[in-house]
Every structure is written in structure tokens, then in C-alpha cells.
Amino acid sequence: MASVDADALRNIGLLFRSINFTFRQEMDRALREARIGVSYREISPMLTLALYPGSSGAELARRSLVSAQAMNTVLAKLVAKKYVERRAQPRSLRADSWHLTAKGAALMEKAKPVFEATTSRMLGGLNAHDIRNLEKYLRSCSAALENGEGE
Fold first, then answer.
1. Segments forming the whole domain that contains residue 11
2. Would 1 be classed as within a structural domain?
3. Is residue 56 part of a domain?
4. pLDDT tens digits for 105-130?
5. Residue 100, in any domain of the structure
6. Smallest Cα–Cα separation from 48: which of 38, 39, 57?
């Protein structure tokens, strides 16, 4: 990594936190206005399951940035609404394997335009080239953290 001053590093960290918080708030508002029937906290693990069916509860918690205990509470609500179901984990008898139900998949289709509109609004000041670069940079940041790079 090139030499970057401490203020820039701190500002980037704070911007990530701010964007995450504001995006969640805006998604909650948009989901409520569209009468989707779930909050961002509830739909977040469903988004993960759409991409990674069979994820464990611990994986869902990590990807949703909540504790395992908080995720268990969310999953219980989603099971009660019949949006997700638990199946035996083929790799481990102790872990859960979570999947969207047909009802959950239908809800995700209903919510898709809400996500797209909110994300488009967030990226409104960027052109297509900037958006592709932003995605590339964010993927690089994510991979560096997941792989423990830079330590």
C-alpha cells in the first residue's frame, strides 16, 4: 500500500461507517414505503441467502454485521414468517444450513427494485466508469480484510 497520511485513513474508515449507517436507514425507509413487510435487518440475511444458499447462522451474522445472537433472533422471525428454513448442514452436524423458501424468494423479487433504486440514488453522482472502479476498489478492500493482508 502506498503511504497515506493518518487523516485520510481515519476519514475513509469514518466514511465507510457513515455510508453503512445511512444506507441501512434509507433502505428501512424505502422498504417501509414500498410496504415490503420486513426491515433491512431482516432482509439482509435473505440477500445473503439468495447469493449463498446454505450459509450457516454464523456466516449470515458476519455478512450482516451483527452478533450471532442477534442473527438468531432475526432468523427466528424469518422462520415464523416462512421466508427462510433451516436444513441439516452437510459439512457439520453442529452447524445450521439456511435457505430461502419460495415465499422468501418471492419477497426478494418484490424488494429488488427498492434495493436498486436506493443504491442508484447513493451512486447518483458517479458515472458508469466510476461505479465499476468503486466496485473493484471495494472488492479489493473486502478481500484484503478477509485474507488478513497488510498485517
1. 6-147
2. no
3. yes
4. 999 999 999 999 999 999 999 999 99
5. yes
6. 57
Total domains, the chain: 1
**Cα angle 135, 98, 35; round to 5:** 70
Contacts of 49 (CB under 8 A, 6+ apart): 55, 60, 84, 98, 99, 100, 104
Model pLDDT for residues 53-98, shown as the tens digit of each residue = 999 998 999 888 889 999 999 999 999 999 999 987 766 666 779 9
| CA distance readout (Å), 151 to 13, 60, 148 | 17, 25, 6
Is pTM beyond 0.85? Reply is no
Any alpha helices (H) in 34-93, and if so which ranges?
Answer: 40-51, 57-64, 68-80
Establish if 38 belongs to a structural domain.
Answer: yes
DSSP character at residue 67: -
- What's the CATH number where 88 sits? 1.10.10.10
* DSSP codes joined into one string, 88-129: E-TT-SSSEEEEE-HHHHHHHHHHHHHHHHHHHHHTTT--HH
